[in-house]
Every structure is written in C-alpha cells, then in structure tokens.
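EI: anyone free to look at a 70-residue chain?
SC: sure, send it
EI:
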Amino acid sequence: AAHVHFTLVSETYGRQWAPKVSLGDDPLVTDAQRQRSRDAGDFATVVEVVESDGKQHIELKIRLRREPDF
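SC: here you go
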C-alpha cells in the first residue's frame, strides 16, 4: 500500500521516526493494518483523506518517545 514516512524533530526528544501512515481509501491497505490502526485509537496509522477547497488533508496524532532514534 502507498504510505508516508515522517521524521520528527523535538528539542526535548530529539529526532525520531514516526510510524508510517497509510491512507484509508487505498484498497491495498490490508484488513490487519486497518485493525491495528483501530486498536491504536487516537494514534491510528491508517487515516482518512478529507478533501476541501480542492486540497486533500489528513489528521494525524503522533506520540513521541523519550529517547531519540538518531
């Protein structure tokens, strides 16, 4: 499935990889991925695409860890 990777930078928590994010309208996202995403609650990684004013948007919540990845 198509997905997006993010790197987060925080003065407190350093640089971190965020979980990859898949788009809910992608038919290649598996049922297992969708279930893990639902199980993650607010921190879901399969997100719905919303279109407004000709632009597509997603809403994503990411939990930082205390230790940086790099």
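EI: The two ends are 27 Å apart (CA to CA).
SC: 👍
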